Amino acid sequence: MKSPIAQLCFIVLMLAVAGSAICEAQADNSAIPQIRSVIIEYVRSIDNLDLNLARKVWSAAGEVSFIHPGGTEHGLDNILQNFYGNTMGAFSKRELMAKETGIHVYGDTAWSELSWTFHATVKNSGQEITTHGRETQIYRKEDGTWRIVHVHYSGMPETGALKGF
Predict the structure, then answer these.
(1) How far are the Cα atoms of 8, 26, 54, 65, 108 from residue 19, in angstroms, in the given order?
(2) For residue 6, how many other CB atoms are within 10 A of its CB?
(3) Which helix (H) or strand (E) covers residue 161, if one does?
(4) Rounded Cα distance, 66 and 80, in Å
(5) Is the pLDDT at 12 greater than 60, yes or no?
């Protein structure tokens, strides 16, 4: 039989682990609506080509990055210039409709999974386009505010034998 001290230590350890898990779950739950707000503001920044709003949702840290079909951007200035300015700036109208499919929070970091539909009008030709895709966004809590530190987006999966390779 284990000593009473060993049993007491085990009980204290289990209570500490359980308490930590409860606190983390509570923090996770409070973060989810905040991250949803970041997603909404991110969509608005694209729809309105609003660089000031983009600066509010993106981290200004040097390691931020964005992988999109037009390239890979490193640093907020490159994201603003190449993704917002060049890619999204090629459209006279933009409507990004994002559907959040999951938010996962781990302390001061988190990620979301999104699927989206993008309606746009090409500036030069007036052609209307619609594309569909999916996106992963990674966030970090900075001074109490959630900010995007990485986005990776791609088209929808291709199904069937030997598709999507």
Answers:
(1) 16, 11, 37, 35, 18
(2) 10
(3) none
(4) 10
(5) no
What is the DSSP secondary-structure string of 62-107?
A: TT-EEEETTEEEESHHHIIIIIIIIIGGGEEEEEEEEEEEEEEEET
Q: How many CB atoms lie within 10 A of CB 159?
A: 7
Q: Is the CA virtual torsion 56, 57, 59, 63 positive or negative?
A: negative
Predicted TM-score of the model (pTM): 0.80
pLDDT of 22 higher than 80: no
At 91, list the tokens.
Answer: 């459209």
Q: From the centroid of its chain, how far is CA 35?
A: 8
- As a CATH number, domain 31-155 is 3.10.450.50
pLDDT tens sequence across 127-136? 999 999 999 9
